[in-house]
Write a structure and sequence with these properties.
Elements (H helix, E strand, L loop, with lengths): L1 H59 L6 H16 L3 H22 L3 H5 L1 H36 L3 H8 L11 H4 L7
Helix pairs in contact: 1-2, 1-3, 1-5, 1-6, 2-3
C-alpha cells in the first residue's frame, strides 16, 4: 500500500517538475522571440537611416531653398543612429518618420525631382523599408502580446513570478506622427 502512495507521489512530483520546466522554457522562448523581433526592427531602422544620405544628395540639387526640411531629416537620422535604448530608438524613429513625410510632401512640388530615376529608386527603397518596419513592429507587438498573455494568466502567472518576469510594453506610434504633414509656401 505504501509503495503505491510513494509511487503516486513520485509521479506527481515528476509531473510538477515537467510542467515547471515546460513553462520555464516557454517563457524563455517567448522572451527570445521578443528580443529577436526588436532586433529586426532595429535592422530596418538602420537600413532606412543608411538610405537617407543618398536620398538627401539626390534631393539637395532640386530643393535649394528647402533647407529646414533637409536639416530636420538629417537631425532625425543622427538621433536614430546614436540611439542606445529601445525607447530612444522609438523616439528617433518617430521623429525621422515625420521628417520623411514632410520631405516627400515637399518633393511633390518639384516635378523634375519626381521624375528623377535616382529619387524614384530611393523612394521605392524607402517604401519597401517602411513596409518591413511596419511588419517588424507588428511581429514585435504580436510577440509581446503572446508573452504578456502567458505570464498574466494562470498557471503562467505563477511561474513568471517565480522567474521574476514582468510584462513587456508594445510599440505604439504617437498620434503626432500619424498626421499628414502640411506643406505651405
Amino acid at each position: 500500500m505504501w509503495i503505491w502512495i510513494l509511487f503516486i507521489l513520485i509521479i506527481i512530483v515528476v509531473l510538477l517538475i515537467l510542467i515547471y520546466v515546460g513553462y520555464y522554457n516557454r517563457i524563455i522562448r517567448m522572451e527570445n522571440r521578443i528580443d529577436n523581433s526588436w532586433a529586426q526592427i532595429d535592422v530596418q531602422l538602420r537600413r532606412r537611416a543608411e538610405l537617407i544620405p543618398n536620398l538627401m544628395e539626390t534631393v539637395k540639387g532640386y530643393m535649394k531653398h528647402e533647407k529646414e526640411v533637409l536639416e530636420n531629416v538629417t537631425k532625425a537620422r543622427t538621433a536614430l543612429m546614436s540611439a542606445k535604448t529601445p525607447q530612444e530608438n522609438i523616439d528617433a524613429d518617430n521623429m525621422l518618420t515625420g521628417a520623411l513625410k514632410t520631405l516627400f510632401a515637399v518633393a511633390e512640388n518639384y516635378p523634375d525631382l519626381k521624375a528623377n530615376q535616382n529619387f524614384l529608386n530611393l523612394q521605392d527603397e524607402l517604401t519597401n523599408t517602411e513596409n518591413k518596419i511596419a511588419y517588424s513592429r507588428q511581429h514585435f507587438n504580436d510577440s509581446v502580446l503572446a508573452f504578456n498573455n502567458t505570464i498574466e494568466t494562470f498557471p503562467g502567472l505563477w511561474f513568471a513570478k517565480r522567474m521574476g518576469r514582468k510584462t513587456r510594453e508594445m510599440l505604439q506610434i504617437p498620434e503626432a506622427t500619424k498626421e499628414v504633414p502640411q506643406v505651405k509656401f
